[in-house]
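Exercise: predict the fold of this chain.
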Amino acid sequence: MVKNYIDTLKNLLIYPRDVIDGFIHSEKAHSFQHPFLFAVIGMMIVVLLNTLLVDFSVSINPDTIQAENEQVQQIAQWVQVTTIRISTQLLPLGMVLLLIPMLSLPGLFFFRDETEGFYANLILNTYTVGASVLILLAAIPVWMFSSLPLTDPFMNTTLPGLLVATVGIWIYKNYFSVSDLAGWIRILSSYISGYVLFIIVKGLAAGIIGYMIFAINRIREISGDL
């Protein structure tokens, strides 16, 4: 499995069409790793190392949150904490669950002449995200030793976004054999559109999860007072 994973990663970075089209069109056993398994393995590796090496606990200053009452302030705090965790420690999980479909949707428009519908875009982006999550290992020393807190937008948004985009656009460039300005505009437009959708959906998910955590804690407090 390890050798198959490494071979798949190496070929994705150099000859992505062999891996991606080989899975889409092959009627026999695919010689490279299944896209979903490939993405999940990368996700698990990065999340595990994140958890073991980096302290992702953050303190939110209540004074920075303007709220009408204490409960609204607590909800806002939980949403902020959840957003930071999803954007750092659990970002690989968010990428596998959300970034793959969000990148695939713009691809239906920007790559309509190069791919064969949503399924082909889904396979392309599953492999792309699976390879992209590994570059997040480069963020670990920055998160560990930087003087900037994890609440800083550079640490939880800009840095991860730039790292992930570097690998994702590289695979797009090699897969579509981009050699002219129009090709670059097409792949950049598709990737940026998908990543913006990912940021929006990730924020909505963080809001829902943060509220649920607050509600569960509130129910526990009320139950303890009875």
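Check your answer against the key: The first helix runs from residue 2 to 14.
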